[in-house]
Amino acid sequence: MTSRDGYQWTATTGLRQGVPSIGVISPPTNVLSTTEDWDVVVVGAGYSGLTASRDACLAGLKVLLIEARDRIGGRSWSSNIGGYPFEMGGTWLSWGQPHIWREVSRYQMRSELEPCFDFSRGVNHFELRTGSQGSSIFSHLEEDALLASALEKFVDVDGAMGRQIIPYPHDAFHNPAARQYDDMSALDRLNALAQSLTPNERAVLESFILLCSCGTLETTSFFEFLHWWALCDYSYKGCLQHLISYKFKGGQSSFAIKFFRESLRTGRLSYAFNSPVQSINDHGDRVVVKTRDGRQYSGARLISTIPLNVLSSVHFSPPLSPQRMAAANIGHVNQCVKVHAEVSCPDMRSWSGISYPFNKLAYAIGDGTTPAGNTHIVCFGGAHNHIQPEEDVEATKMAVENMSPGNMDIKRLVFHNWCKDEFAKGAWFFAPPQLLSKSLDELRCRHGNVLFANSDWAVGWRSFIDGAIEEGTRAAVTVIEELRPAPAVRSHL
C-alpha cells in the first residue's frame, strides 16, 4: 500500500509524492455506525495511541482509534522501497530504553535489530567540512575523541558530568537547581565556554547539538540537552549507544503494526483513518469528537495524543487551560530535515560527516546497504539553515553532495517533510528555554474526561518512541482503572 505521506526522487521518475508502507491501513475504517458509544476514544495512531488502544482493548474496554493519516506510526514510520526500509521519522532504539524494550521483548523482536554503523568498508573515516577551513579527514576513533571532548566540556556544569544536577533522569527537576539551566539556551552555554573549545570542537559540538534539537542554538534549551545526556548514562559512548546505533531490520512500521494487530484481535477495536479531528467536547457524561468531514463519535473518556505543535489547531470545549495553550502556542523547536540518499559507492557505508554551518544538511552517516549494493546515507538538517527538500530537488541533491563532494552519486532520494506536515508541524520534540520548567506538569494533567498522552511531555525518554509508549501506558492505566467493571465478589456463607 502507498501512503500519501513522503516523497521519492529518482532520475527516471523525478519527484513523486507518496511512498509505500506496511503501516497503511486498509480498509481505512471498520466503523459501521457513528452512534455507537465507546468506552475510550483515542485520537492519534502513533506509538502513544497504539499503546493506549492496545492496553485498553486487552483490559476489556471498547476502543475507537481515530487517525488523521492513512497509516499508523505518527512521527515514526518506514517506507519499504525495493526491499529496503527507509525510516521516515523516528528510527533508533536501545535496550537501555525500558518501555520500548519491554515491547520488543513482548513481540519477540529482539533478533530483528541490526547495527547502524559498519566500519568495514573502504571509505572508513569521518569528514569535517566547515566551509572556511576546507575539509579535514579523521579516523572514527579520532571523531569519537573530538566529540567526547567537546561534549564533556559542554555538559560538565557540576564537576560530575551532570550527575549531580540531574541525578534521576526520569525526575529531571528532582534537584531544583536544574531549573536554572532551562533558562539558558545552548548558545548561552557555548558562549560561556568559548575560550575552552578549539575550532573543531566548536564545529562538531554545535552540529551535534543541532542534530538533537534541529532548532537553532538560540532556541535550544540547555536543560533539555542535559536531560538527554543524563538519559544516555552521562557519556558520549552512551549517546551513541542509545541514540543512533540500532534499528529494526524491517523498519519501524514492522514494529508498530504489531500493536495495531494485537488490538484488532481482541475484537474490541474500532478505527477510523483519514479522519482529522476538528473539535473535542467534554459534556461531563461523555466526550464527543467531531471530525472535519462532520462525523461525530463519543466515549466515556478520550485520550488525545495530538503533538504539542498541533494542539492549538483542535477546538476543545471546555477550553484548555491558559498555561497549556500558552505552551502549545510556543511549541517545540524541532524543524528537522531528514533526507535519505541512496548513492552508488558501496564503500561509503563506513563514512560519516559533518558539513556545517554553510550547508543545508549538517550531519550524515552511512546507514545501510540497499539490495542493489548501493550505500544508504541518512542526512539531517534543521531550522538553523533550513531547506524545504521537495521545493527544489536540485538544491536538496546539492546539499547531499556537499556532505562529501565527489562521493555522492545519488540514485534515489527519500524523505518526509515534517515541517510542512499539518499533523506534526515539526519532528521529534525539543524544547526551547523555559517551556519545560514552566509547563511540563500542566501538559501532563488531564482535562476533565480528556487525558493527554504524547512523547512530547514524557518524563523519561521525552521525544523518543520509548517516551511515546511510556505516555500511552500511563493514559491507558488511568482509563482502565476508572472504567473497567470491578470483579464480582463471591460471598462465603
UniProtKB/TrEMBL annotation:
Cofactor(s) it depends on: FAD
Keyword vocabulary terms for this entry: FAD, Flavoprotein, Oxidoreductase
EC number from the UniProt entry: 1.4.3.-
UniProt family annotation: Belongs to the flavin monoamine oxidase family.
Lineage start: Eukaryota, Fungi, Dikarya, Ascomycota, Pezizomycotina
Entry superkingdom: Eukaryota
Protein name per the record: Amine oxidase
PANTHER family the UniProt entry points to: AMINE OXIDASE, AMINE OXIDASE [FLAVIN-CONTAINING] B
Entry binding sites for FAD: 48, 67-68, 277
UniProt catalytic activity: a secondary aliphatic amine + O2 + H2O = a primary amine + an aldehyde + H2O2
InterPro entries given in the database record: Amino_oxidase, FAD/NAD-bd_sf, Flavin_amine_oxidase, Flavin_MAO
Residues holding substrate: 380
Gene Ontology terms for molecular function: monoamine oxidase activity
Organism whose genome encodes this protein: Aspergillus oryzae (strain ATCC 42149 / RIB 40) (Yellow koji mold)
Residue span, Amine oxidase domain: 48-480
Keyword Magnesium annotated: no
Flavoprotein among keywords: yes
